[in-house]
## 1
Amino acid sequence: MTGSQVMMQMGGAFLLGALLAAAATYAWLSRRVKSEHQRVLHVEQSRQQVLEQVAQARRQIEQLQRESHELRLAIRPAPRQAPAPVQDAAEAARLYAESLLKPPSPTDKPQAFKDTVVLRRGPD
């Protein structure tokens, strides 16, 4: 074998090795890109689902707010009572003095024991 034939064989082997390495790298990268693409699709679907849930939650909140507003309108607050008439200070003092001069009302004496109550028994 001559030097040029050896060089041709080495060049061919190098090209063949480079082609095999390129094919292996391409296969590995294509699998990797495919898995990343699937992951991106999954994330996008999850994002869409979350956006739908958020929209649904907002609709429910709006509905609850409408119902709450309707209930507030339906249940009107009770009218306030008129304020008590303002009493004259001298009149108030006179009524207080009269209440002190009145004799205390008689109260019943406390009983030590309450009356006994007989309870009926069930049918025996």
## 2
Amino acid sequence: METLLLPLIMIAVLFMLFRSNKKRQDQAKQMRSAIEPGSGVRTIGGMYALVKSVNEETVELEVAPGTVVHYTKGAIAAVLDPEEYDAIINGRPIEDESVDAVDEADEADEKPLSLDKKDESDTDGTDDEAPKSK
């Protein structure tokens, strides 16, 4: 019985590996088929760009205003949401209403930052520093 158990476990592990790999490939193929002109994308090299056109095997990406380069579809790592692409390219945080409400409440409770050397607890006005030795 034990002689059959080891080969069965190995076959099951191989089956699971192939299955997960196939799922990942299908997800990548589906993502690449969703590429449309005007979409923001990230390449496998980490470059962000706008899709100008989609061809059979390649995509044309605008990496800077007026600069269009050709990449294979396999070089696209992710298709980004318009808000996410805008946040990354323009340095704007992604809007989240619940976080904004908490931030506004915190701002009302905060005191302005003081760069004075004296501590706010020092109310008698005396200098608490040790006298300098001669």
## 3
Amino acid sequence: MTKAPDPAEVRACAQSCAAANVRRAARAVGRLYAESLAEVGLEPTQYSLLVACSLAEGATVGRLAEIFLLERSALARNLAVMEKRGLLRVKPGEDRRTRKVTLTASGKSTLAAALPRWREAQAKAEKAFGAERLAKLVAESRALADAVRDKEFPRA
């Protein structure tokens, strides 16, 4: 006979599960940014990659995967789509094992066009949630990601 889970424990899980609640918030916030960025033909993940590539010009695929906490294969798929669109270029690094990512002129102009759309979405999020609360949430989210990542993959 199979034992049914305790309903109170299931309810507590639904209310306090970090994974479920962070993903739910991410989907809602992602939709907000997707609506604004659609005007320039970008998904929020693509926008974030353009920002990272701009800030870390010439970063390796491995370094970008670390920044985004993504498997290299998942990142490679996203980079391939963006490279096909002419937004960035992935080329061999110093040795055969590394590949460097750089923005193209089109990628830079797309990022410049996307920045006002990002500001628009950011302002909507701040208005809905409060600028100070949002700043604290972003800081805490970064700290949570770092804490969990460092437990899984301690830095040398």
## 4
Amino acid sequence: MLKNILVALDASEIADRVIETLHELVLAKDSKVILCHVFPPPESEMELSADRPHPDSPALSSLQVEKQLQFYQTQLPVESEIELVSGDPAEEIIRLANIYKADLIVIGSRGLTGVNRIVQGSVSSQVVEEAPCSVLVVKVK
């Protein structure tokens, strides 16, 4: 049974698709959903290398992200919490999964392939490899 579900959301269009997929799951009344967002640490902005791609859109403020997660929270039929953390996305998602003893992690994937996947890395791939539980990866259609 899925008692604790960690839902990792970023500030992209994938977040809506992840929430749609979550609604398709049959959750027990006593299930708990933890909606999380990981902000890059402030010092990482100082260490951006010139040879690596950077996000096209500016990072959303924590207030904007929190409001979006609160909106998603109102749509959930079960108890939920919000976690806003800072750090390496994959490491923080795995850390939260361990803290909450998650039975499932739901995460989006941009479907990067080839050189883009090598250069930018894949948070979802790292989470799948290192997670203490099952991982549902939602791909953009």
